[in-house]
Design goal:
InterPro entries: His_Pase_superF_clade-1, His_PPase_superfam. It comes from Sphingomonas cynarae. This is Histidine phosphatase family protein. This protein is of the alpha/beta class. The protein has one domain: 3-Layer(aba) Sandwich (Rossmann fold). The chain is 31% helix and 19% strand. The protein has 6 helices and 6 strands; from the N terminus they run βααβαβααβαββ. The protein has a 6-stranded mixed sheet with strand order 3-2-4-1-5-6. The chain is globular and about 50 Å long. 38% of the residues are buried.
């Protein structure tokens, strides 16, 4: 039996709109809450629902009346010293180094390779069936990289937005089925 995984990107936060580094404690902003309320998730039924531990993912799931399991492996990337900061609020030299190699991660934070490792472990540990996961941009990029067997840095060119749905399937190996904007 195959595994079908739908990754739903959490709704928008003020930091997302201002291009700030993610903060797991930040809730959805009013616009994010309104968009989630208007969102129609589709008619598919799921055997399981996984919810990342960040506040935006939890808020999204709650507004969609989704009951699910907390899945720490699907947590957002740890932005370390830059958590919640805007690009204009971090050291210029450190920012330039990060912009040259964003896959390395922010100072004191988690690399994209580390995110890809934990997300890949989560995906490969899923049992057959249909799964919905409410999570974050970096996690969705890591899941796509894992499914396609490409470096996670290659996914930086994919514009993942709030409430975007990514569908992956596994029958012997992972495949990307669909990218759908809200």
């Amino acid at each position: 039996m195959p595994t079908h995984l739908v990754l739903l990107c959490a709704g928008a936060t003020a930091s997302f709109r201002a291009a700030r580094f993610p903060d797991p404690a930040e809730p959805l902003d009013e616009g994010g809450r309104a968009a989630v309320r208007r969102f129609v998730p589709g008619g598919r039924r799921f055997d399981r629902c996984l919810i990342a531990p960040g506040m935006a993912a939890r808020d999204t799931a709650a507004l969609l009346s989704l009951a699910g399991e907390d899945e720490p492996l699907l947590r957002d990337i740890d932005a370390g010293d830059w958590t919640g900061a805007g690009l204009d609020e971090v050291d210029g030299a450190a920012l330039a180094a990060w912009l040259a190699a964003p896959e390395t991660g922010a100072p004191g934070g988690e690399s994209m390779a580390a995110v890809a490792g934990r997300v890949g472990a989560c995906l490969d540990g899923l049992v057959a069936g249909s799964v919905l996961a409410v999570t974050h941009v970096a996690v969705i990029r890591a899941a796509i990289a894992h499914a396609l067997g490409i470096p996670v840095a290659a996914t930086l060119g994919i514009d993942v937005t709030p409430l975007m749905r990514v569908t992956l399937s596994r029958h012997r190996r992972w495949r990307l089925q669909e990218l759908r904007r809200a």
